[in-house]
């Protein structure tokens, strides 16, 4: 069951959250729209946190958000019980005037049916079916307005994979990556193997005692591990992402990564990933006390900690303003 429309007060600003059903085959995916609202339910003129007007219309440029492995879109918009101090990237962006879309992949969150022992999908189908379905729905809601894509961890890699499959023709203004990586350390691989062993008890991957729909199919885990271990980046259907990268022209991109050494997607992993990509308009933002930030953040805290709104989120806002102000529109698919 999808969520009913709700209105929340985020740091004194009214935010409306509306749930849409996106269908692909027998799957029903949840896509939540999060935007700034006026008192009577009409969208107010949007101003960024720095005071600049983005748009006098319904909302600013659309941004599609895709979560990491074993995460749901709640990583971008924690429930009120977990965001009383005003955390959450989606609400931050909505309060700044952006039209925010939180995409849920099949079997996760409130998408239907939920991941179960019979789940047989891997990463390829998420790239070839789920992401295009979400983008098609977004295009219906915001026609003639190319979105910005934002991913966390595996979500970033899936968005990039979809872009490469489009041969660079996907309509996208720019890409934002939090804890982005492909190849990973042996320590993380051992952890994923332990996770898989524990998950064989019920036939899918899930954190212990989780009740929030944070599930993945075993095949997603196998594909993810294969992509993280091999220098070659090849899809199950034979599509060679490495070969596609050789001639790709990537959109403007910004990369945020924690400076700690113990987690997947840290600054070293992110540098390694950028080195795998062709030269493009990109900016790498190390986040941590050593870099002058308010605190050291874990991979999840980069998106959820309330202090992030007064820290690296402001750097993201500045970059988004620059991207949104560009006059040249990308080519549509």
What characteristics describe this protein?
two-stranded antiparallel ribbon; single chain; 9-stranded mixed β-sheet; 333 residues; globular; Rossmann fold
Task: Please tell me about this protein's structure.
29% of the residues lie in helices and 20% in strands. It has nine helices and 13 strands. It starts with 5 loop residues before the first strand and ends in an 8-residue tail after the last helix. It is an alpha/beta fold and 333 residues long. It has a single domain (6-325), classed as Alpha/Beta hydrolase fold, catalytic domain (Rossmann fold), CATH 3.40.50.1820. The chain has a nine-stranded mixed beta sheet with strand order 1-2-3-7-6-8-9-12-13, sandwiched between helices. The protein has a two-stranded antiparallel ribbon with strand order 4-5. A two-stranded antiparallel sheet has the order 10-11. The chain has helices spanning 89-95, 123-141, 154-165, 186-199, 218-229, 241-246, 267-276, 301-304, 312-325, and strands at residues 6-10, 13-24, 27-36, 46-47, 53-55, 62-66, 99-103, 148-152, 174-178, 204-205, 216-217, 253-258, 282-287. The longest helix has 19 residues, at 123-141.
């Amino acid at each position: 069951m999808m969520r009913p429309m709700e209105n929340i007060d985020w740091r004194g600003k009214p935010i409306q959250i509306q749930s849409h059903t996106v269908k692909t085959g027998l799957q029903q995916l949840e896509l939540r729209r999060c935007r700034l609202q006026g008192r009577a339910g009409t969208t107010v003129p949007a101003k960024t946190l720095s005071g600049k007007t983005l748009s006098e219309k319904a909302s600013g440029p659309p941004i599609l958000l895709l979560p990491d492995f074993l995460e749901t879109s709640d990583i971008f918009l924690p429930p009120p019980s977990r965001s009383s101090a005003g955390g959450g990237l989606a609400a931050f962006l909505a309060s700044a005037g952006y039209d925010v879309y939180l995409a849920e992949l099949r079997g996760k969150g409130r998408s239907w049916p939920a991941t179960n022992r019979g789940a047989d999908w891997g990463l390829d189908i998420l790239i070839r079916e789920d992401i295009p379905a979400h983008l098609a729905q977004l295009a219906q809601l915001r026609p003639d307005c190319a979105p910005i894509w934002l991913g966390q961890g595996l979500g970033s890699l899936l968005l990039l994979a979809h872009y490469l499959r489009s041969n660079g023709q996907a309509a996208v203004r720019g890409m934002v990556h939090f804890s982005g990586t492909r190849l990973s350390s042996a320590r993380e691989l051992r952890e994923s193997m332990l996770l898989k062993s524990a998950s064989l008890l019920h036939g899918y991957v899930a954190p212990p005692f989780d009740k929030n729909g944070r599930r993945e199919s075993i095949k997603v885990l196998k594909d993810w591990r294969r992509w993280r271990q091999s220098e070659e980046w090849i899809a199950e259907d034979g599509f060679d992402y490495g070969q596609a990268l050789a001639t790709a022209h990537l959109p403007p991109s910004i990369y945020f990564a924690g400076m700690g050494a113990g987690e997947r997607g840290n600054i070293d992993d992110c540098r390694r990933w950028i080195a795998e990509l062709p030269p493009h308009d990109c900016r790498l933002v190390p986040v941590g006390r050593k870099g002058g930030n308010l605190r050291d953040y874990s991979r999840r805290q980069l998106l959820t900690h309330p202090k992030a709104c007064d820290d690296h989120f402001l750097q993201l806002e500045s970059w988004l303003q620059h991207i949104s102000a560009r006059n040249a529109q990308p080519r549509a698919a």
